[in-house]
Amino acid sequence: MRSRRPSSRPLATTLQKAGAILIAPVTAGLSLIDRPLRAWQKKTGHGGMAAVFLLPNMAIFGIFVLFPLAVNFIYSMTGGTALFLADRSFVGAQHYERLADCTNYLDTATCKDDMFWNAVWNTATFVVVQVALLTVVAMTTALILNRDLRARSFWRAVFFFPVLLSPVVVGLIWRWILQREGLLNLVVVGMGGDQTNWLTDRNFAFAAAVGVSIWAHVGFYALILLAGLQAIPKDLYEAAEIDGTRPARVFWRITLPLLAPNLLVVIVLALIRAVQVFDEVYVLTGGGPGTSTMYLTQYIYEIGFASILRNPGLAAAASIMMGGVLVVLTVMQLGLSRRNNRPGR
Amino acid sequence: MKRTVLAALATAFLSTTAFAGDVRVMWYSDGVEGEVIQDLLNRFMEENPDINVTLDNVAYKVIQEQLPIQLQAGEGPDIARVTNIKEQAGHWLDLTPYLENPDDWRENFGAQLDWMRPDGSDIIPGFMTQLTLVGGFANKTLFEQAGVEMPGQGATWDDWVDASAKVAADQELEAAFAIDRSGHRISGPNVSYGANYIGADGMPAPVDDGVKTFATKLVDWTNDGKMLKDVWVSAAGSTYRAAADDFINAAIPMYYSGSWQIANLSTKIGDMFDWVAIGSPCGTDACSGLAGGAALVAIKYTKNPEDVAKVMEFLARPEVVKEFSERTLFLPAHAGVVSDGGLEWQTEDKNVAAALGKFVEASAEVAPNAAALPAWKWANVYYGALVTRISQVMAGELTLDDAFARMDQDIADQVAQAQQ
Amino acid sequence: MSAALRFLTRRRGHGGRWHWTDVFTTVWLFGGLIIMFGPALWLVGSSLKSPAQLAEFPPTLLPYVSQAVTVPGYDKPLDLYDVTMEDGTTRRLAQIRRVGTMAQMVDPAAPDEKIRVNIKQRTPAREVGFATENYTEPFQRLDFVRYLWNSVFVTVMATLITLLTNSMAAFALSKYEFRGRGAVMGIILATLMVPLSVILVPLYSVISGLGLTNTLWGVILPTVATPTGVFLLRQYMLTIPDELLDAARMDKASEWQIYWRIVLPLTAPALAVLAIFSVVWRWNDFLWPLIVLSRQELYTLQVGLFSFSGELNVQWHYILAMTVVTMIPVVLVFVFLQRFITTGIAGAGLK
């Protein structure tokens, strides 16, 4: 970690003071429970303490994440439109059969549930394209921000700022820009072009979905990469320069290998996010034109929640199938992160 | 710290318990009606100081997505303004025993009571806050500028689209016309071309030639640029999209939507151009629109049905209905108010009264097959399948024949699911 | 890619000449400035437009209001138009009324003479003006202070609980050896990716079963056990040397004291990052609060602002204005804490 100079600015100190006052009751509470915990520690040793530390988080996690997930699995085996499990009937694997019923998985028209497979392939395409482009854009931005720039913190802020916006706002802003009567067409018409229905063109709508999701998240990933770049010792570059190594070689031989751990985090996090893509694209394109930007999460949300006759069982089955893919990704991530947890940095 | 949390927790829990005399109304707004109803409720509370009515203004999304869950859990507000009235009819409260004069309600709101009752029942669950009728609007000024005569009484869809296309070509407009992206909107025209959604057994019938004729027309009009493409193509599934802004911008000379747009058009168009309501163009069989609207219903799970009935009775008074309609520019559902006439629409826009009048007139044209739809519980399933699949055809993802097959399949699947 | 390659070795002004990578950098930065900030400025500008102007095409960059003038002999102020006359000159006239495609106009300077003008020859005379009522009316109609308080309560409580429980769990998972540690970590990672929108119905059943519907705690609790937070903090705590803990144990410090007196302060950068993200996420939460909260007095700002979206019409002018208002705190947090965020992400290492 880089050493940070102690803050001397008045604002920072005021904030720290304010923070200290805010935290005071919390710390008081924390020291209060030390006595009973000490007694517990005496009785159970370190193992018991691990349980104490894990308990609050795991309890909340269990009730509000794990339990609903398990319930979701039971839902996927039940039928009907009722929302509460008690009112639903057991139908076995019926929903899974419906979803898997396809003569040719690549031609969605031959599938019983064509919408599901449209969503699957749309999501797959989106994930591949978005993650690849996002990584390149984030990398370029990080490399540029790592240069000897004037007002670097300003530029950093410029690229980071959309991360703070809610996905709904992001989708809304861009819909207003890209729709037929939007800002982009004002520019296009102003330059003598024709007014175009950007969001009714399949390719453009896809490009917009990818572009907007990159716009919204690139700052975060660029910062992770920037942190990695700044941690690379400068003398490595100086040595390379003395040796007269070509810049391309420096990049492949020094920058990229040393940046690998950060790059991995970026790719894995981006992958997870891309699979879950929903809000901003939903607001932006509504899944259209046709179904060309309808992704899995939207499919599940609409079937199970937003349509008038809901089908929570089918939605649950789809989400379990989606979960299967996510578990594979997780296992990959676990494997990769274990490799990177090895000492060396 | 702990104590603060506990205190907060306690208040949070307490606030969910209903006290006697408390009535909660869940309400969504398309325009000013939220303010108007608040005014009316304030007046009610002055008359009944022992009853405290709280108006929860919510997004329509809440009515559509969250209220059904609450209802299935046996929770929810005491009164709600809803549009899926028939599907959820099992959750509505029968006000009959609490009303001072139920016959009065049957007389004045009788025409729509079947829209909100379970099949075969005779309960009084509430009343319609507004009646709507699907119908068209035309930009009179654009027609004049282009020197094109507006098609008159009895003109068909083709007449209207052709005339509008001439205007659009002459005035270099975006397209000839647009229809909101909604299955409800195209069902009147479908019926005009002979469609009947309801099978002999009361269950959904397969899509028939009427639906196919109009759907084919829609797709053709979209492909040759007469129908504005954005509206239908720019979303998936049964998402609702309105084309009002394009009409307001004079980008299209004709717009097929419904009576609820009147207030919106009036505020946003102002003096830019003259617009008129044109009713529904004709098909081969009829010139039908489709009625609809929002209902205010009492909910079965309320703890104080007497107080709820008092609120409902107040809001259903003729003078209150009249004021509500005049201020919101909505068509009233109260038969007495309608037959007495003399509504003074609160607007300076001369286009408004004429348009509202035209809609009242057009309501006589609603064909029987369309008139049956609001009280039919599978209507929304049918609408959803229509929009989803037709817009896929417009986007080039399906052929019309595939789309018709998929519609039948979608509807059958949903019916089977609902009956499980 | 080759464009990006040289950035590390080349510096701007190297040898006093502009290298092509300098050009690329400048283009990227200023292009970025327009693309990143432009949309937000557009949003702010649009939030000050009247409903009619919002629907207008071509859209104007700035909000305008039409000009009106009081002409002697007319009760109401008349709207001003720039009119192209038959001889090609342009005059500024006030409109008395419009019938079909013809408008009756009058020159404010010579109010006696009426002039007939085809409406194609006139354009409204407008000046930059702000529809501030988009901001003031919602403030009067909504219980804004209440919503703000609810939003703050949810954000602060959720963030505090997140920080506390996540850091405790991370401490256990990074500094203790116990059976099942791998399993717990695996579960946490596997659920890292489950989007909330997928388990809405079962989650609502849980909330409803616990009697938490229409309470702020129903909004807070499901969001606080973020696997992301545990993961992030654990990765950071792994870098804290165990010797430090052992030394404290020698001094008879209890495990609890080690946690909050030694480990917690050392984890500050990662905690700061998590805190900031938690604040942003909870502040912006929309879907879940909308499902849990249906009582006016419990609305958060995001839920409140969406009460302007109806079935058939959405009152965009209010929604845009309220969106800008809800963005302000987040932007302020960022402006003041920018340094902490960026150094925090750098410090958190995310190894």
Protein topology:
The complex is a heterotrimer of chains A (345), B (420) and C (351).
Chain A: H1 10-32, H2 34-75, E1 78-79, E2 89-90, H3 94-100, H4 114-145, H5 152-160, H6 167-178, H7 183-190, H8 202-231, H9 234-243, H10 247-275, H11 279-285, H12 296-306, H13 312-340
Antiparallel strand pairs in A: 1-2
Helix pairs in contact in A: 2-13, 4-8, 4-10, 4-12, 5-8, 6-11, 8-10, 8-11, 10-13, 12-13
Chain B: H1 2-14, E1 22-28, H2 33-47, E2 52-58, H3 60-72, E3 79-82, H4 102-113, E4 126-139, H5 140-146, H6 157-171, E5 177-179, H7 183-192, H8 209-223, H9 229-233, H10 244-248, E6 254-258, H11 261-269, E7 275-279, E8 291-298, H12 305-315, H13 318-328, H14 335-340, H15 350-362, H16 368-371, H17 379-394, H18 400-418
Parallel strand pairs in B: 1-2, 1-3, 5-6
Antiparallel strand pairs in B: 3-8, 4-6, 4-7, 4-8
Chain C: H1 2-5, H2 20-46, H3 51-54, E1 64-66, E2 68-69, E3 78-84, E4 90-99, E5 102-107, E6 110-118, E7 122-124, E8 126-128, H4 133-141, H5 144-175, H6 181-190, H7 200-209, H8 216-224, H9 227-237, H10 242-250, H11 255-266, H12 268-284, H13 287-292, H14 301-305, H15 316-348
Antiparallel strand pairs in C: 1-8, 2-3, 3-4, 3-7, 4-5, 5-6
Describe the protein's architecture and organization.
The complex is a heterotrimer of chains A (about 350), B (about 425) and C (about 350). Chain A has about 350 residues and is mainly α. Chain A has 13 helices and two strands. Chain A has helices at about 10-30, 35-75, 95-100, 115-145, 150-160, 165-180, 185-190, 200-230, 235-245, 245-275, 280-285, 295-305, 310-340, and strands spanning about 80, 90. Chain A has a two-stranded antiparallel ribbon with strand order 1-2. Chain A starts with 9 loop residues before the first helix and ends in a 5-residue tail after the last helix. In chain A, about 50% of the residues are buried. Chain B has 18 helices and eight strands. In chain B, strands 1, 2, 3, 4, 5, 6, 7 and 8 form an eight-stranded mixed β-sheet that branches. In chain B, helix 5 (about 140-145) packs across helix 6 (about 155-170). Chain B is globular, with a radius of gyration of 23 Å. The relative contact order of chain B is 0.17. Chain C is of the alpha+beta class and about 350 residues long. Chain C is about 55% helix and about 10% strand. In chain C, strands 2, 3, 4, 5, 6 and 7 form a six-stranded antiparallel β-sheet that branches. A two-stranded antiparallel sheet of chain C has the order 1-8. In chain C, helix 4 (about 135-140) crosses helix 15 (about 315-350), helix 5 (about 145-175) crosses helix 9 (about 225-235) and helix 10 (about 240-250) packs antiparallel against helix 11 (about 255-265). The interface between A and C is large, with 125 and 105 residues.
